[in-house]
Amino acid sequence: METLAWICLFAPLVGMAALALLGSRPSREASAWLGTAAAAVAFLAAVGVFFELLGKDPSQRHFAYTAYTWAGSGSFKVGFSIWIDTLSVTEMLIVSGVGSLIVLYSNGYMHGDPKERRFFAYLDLFLFSMLLLVMSSNFVLLLAGWGLVGLSSYLLIGFWHERKAPVDAAKKAFVMNAIGDVGIAIAIFFMVRDLGTTDFGPVFQTAPQHWARGSTDANLVALGLLVGAIAKSAQIPLHTWLPDAMEGPTPVSALIHAATMVTAGVYLVARAHVLFANAPDVLDAVALLGAATLLMAGCIAIVQTDIKKIIAYSTMSQIGYMFVGVGVTAYAAGMYHLLAHAFFKALLFLCAGIVIHALAAEQDVRRMGGLKTVLPRTKVLMWVGTIALIGFFPLSKDEILAAALDDGSTTAWIGWVVGLAGAFLTGVYAVRLMRLTFYGEESEFAREHIHKEGDAEAPWTMFWPCVVLAVGTVLVGFLSVGFGFKNIFGDWLSSTVSTIEPTTGDDLITTAISWALGAAGGLLVWRAYSSPERIAATRRRFAAVAPVAENLFYWDWLYERIAYRPAAATSAFLYRFGERWVAWGSLDVIGWVARALSRAFSEVQTGVVRLYAGLLVVGAAGLAVFFIGKANL
Amino acid sequence: MEINVQYFIAVSAILFGIGLFGIFTRRSPLILLLSVEIMLNSCNLALISFARSNGQTAGQTFALVVMAVAASEVVIGLGLVVAMARRKADLDVDHLTTLRH
Predict the structure, then answer these.
(1) What HEC string does B1-66 produce?
(2) Closest by Cβ to B20, choosing from A605, A609, A617
(3) Which residues of chain A have pLDDT under 70?
(4) Ranges of each domain in chain B
(5) Which CATH class for the B6-100 domain?
(6) What is the ipTM of this complex?
(7) Is the pTM of this model over 0.90?
(8) Residue B17: its chain A contacts at CB < 8 A?
(9) Do residue A613 and residue B97 have CB atoms under 8 angstroms apart?
(10) How many CB atoms lie within 10 A of CB A445?
């Protein structure tokens, strides 16, 4: 198992290094396949680890392997070590499995891009970073992975750096994620100070003894981790980077900004659930922030016009559900939604990528329409994703809400009510997306730009990953159905994290309401978009509130004023006075003095030997007088 | 009869002064070389005198090294002077300033 785990972690890094070192020697196709092979090797190794772990007794399903001591100071040591248990293996399978499919998809999507090889190197770097994040066995190594995924996310968002928008978006994502990194670092400082270690095992064992439940220290540790989680997972108030991140290529949006990296916050809360359980107030904050985010992001998604941004806000909203799940201690339910979401959201993004690819890079849904005749297979696949997103099947979202209903605390009630309201919004934006893209009149733009080479919608490398994801979405649905059926996923995770098993009654109520609201939202929006008059009527009805959503609830406006402008003004001030006067000015003075001195002394350099000899004698005489005088004193 | 070391040092200082005076007053490179030679030998005299008075041999050994250096210096210096004379160059050290840069 140990060898397989290390292979899983390092295969993508080897792929990245090979791509980087070989440069332009292999052909573009060979480079792309090399990148894909590295991801596939990681996935096969992860599957091997999974089956070996499955063969072990449930109480024995956790292993830690240390390669070497990575950093140390006195008795404090940080190992380069990995942690294999059911939670990390679940994440390994998601990251390498969905990752392999998306890298394969990129073979078709990025074909012909001038920087194709670099793209695959970055993707492999991301996979390594993400695997490091989920496999690390201490918080320092986790933070290293956390930072590295931030770096690869930055590189990939800004991949098309010839344009300004991707560069700005990349910077924004990096800066906001840096806030989260600092939060985790502060939590680590507390661990080092009070526990003397950051290894998962000892930390989770001794933390409740060192930090009293609900004490300031316990709260600060959990809060630091929470800041990291919300920055990475795009939850209020550090969420504004995610929609901008859609400037990156679509496979990147599918892999990093939907399936894996943005859900790392949920993984972190589940991983450190002992620390969060020790700080009940912070755990409530997790659920409430998730609830607020899912509602807000759902509202914004309804008014977005960029196909990728609609899905991005939907991602934000769905991660909100996961936060509600882990916030009410239904950890396995939250992780189950993470798993299902990885499948159906990657599917939606990849289908959107096929649409964008077919329409010559157009992303505005208002210029699409009537694509069902030209992209019939994509339409079917996207419906599978949409049905899963609304929550008809898999019932992953309902499991979270039923667990919240079962929990019964005030926070959980808020989560339940908001979550059901969110189900309605999900129905609205998901069906609106389908309606605008595939149905209605075929738009002028689509008629002009769609390439009609046979009936091929997309190359097989783009089409088949979508099929696999669609099948996976349905199959994942059977892992945990609720209604008293065997909870396969919950049992698998039970050796690592607990969950709330809702009663069949709670399941029934929640699912019934959620289905009804989702369907109602879908039908309403379908009807609202059925004719131009109806669209106009709907627009009039919501004229008062729509601007709030269209302006993204004014978060960017607010950050522009409280963060960006003061920072820009401060740096302009420091540039003008600190940099120009003090730094440049002092250098100028030093240079001026040196030049003046050298000009003065160069007068002596006449080339007349007797003058040199004279100066030599004067100098020697001076020294003699000085030393003799000193000796006499 | 043992002569006091101060007398040797006095002779050495006088010789050094003569050499220095030659360097400052004459402009022919040949005379300059002679003056330098006188100064070097005055130093040798001082070295040997101190060595003798202290009963040590290090100063005498070093005087031999100085002689070797002086011989080499004279060879190169005389070679340069002869070369310049052959080219009918102006043999005045005050005018030989083109190598200053």
Answers:
(1) CCCCHHHHHHHHHHHHHHHHHHHHHCCCHHHHHHHHHHHHHHHHHHHHHHHHHHCCCHHHHHHHHH
(2) A617
(3) 451-456, 633
(4) 6-100
(5) mainly alpha
(6) 0.82
(7) no
(8) none
(9) no
(10) 16
